[in-house]
Input
Amino acid sequence: MLGFLGPNGAGKTTTIRLLLDLIRPTRGEARLFGQPVSDPAVRQRIGYLPGELSLDERLTGRRMLAFFDDLRPAGCPPADARRRDELCERLRLTSADLARVIRDNSRGTKQKIGFVAAFQHDPELLVLDEPTTGLDPLVRESALELMREAGAAGRTVFHSSHVISEVDRSCTRVAIVRAGRLVTVERIDALRKTLTRRMVVRFAGEVPIQELDVPGAELLEHGDGRAVILVSGELDPLLQVLARHPVQHMAFPEPELDEAFLHLYGAEDASP
Output
């Protein structure tokens, strides 16, 4: 599960359109499954939810889903109706929603229809551009869970978003793009380890402020026996200080992915 992160205008949607052969590159090439993306056999293995979803508003939701299924190449089996029903149920897409013509549905309901259309044929690769746009919080959780289940089942999920918290919860790797160029591609856990870390220490007595002035450690705040320390170097000098004092509790809160995102973008800004 790859999170594709970047602010608006960074090139996320353009990348997706290149991968799906909706636009052609001025130079270079894109390949999926080892094949050129222009090969129709590649596209039949993909489920796609565009960031700017456009549906035929004259059709009902049910007919729209059937239409997408009918577009499959000759010889491909139809989508499993039970799977489609399960997706609709989990996304709270009701029979009444599906019976209405699409123009009478809300933005969130249209997004659910697009989500089901991408998933219903159980594709090997899911390309999802801002997939939770317009969804209420409960449905958003269901959508993220369906994405995680697809990854656990061996499918590849390409989750393009500018909502860092969603990528942090749903993906195993992240690619960060800036102005059309990749800043990094890393496993999320490895990316967190590159960050400066915050250590929270609870002392039994007063905080030894002077002794905490060691290389690689910066005292951010202190009071009532509690200290928050920013650690950017080796831990050993700091641990030697802590070992000389009665420590009641010590923890490294897990760094958030948005810290890594801002750190990398800040590093780019600082580079010549």
The chain has eleven helices and twelve strands. Residues 237 and 243 are 10 Å apart (CA to CA). The mean pLDDT is 88. The longest strand covers residues 181-187.
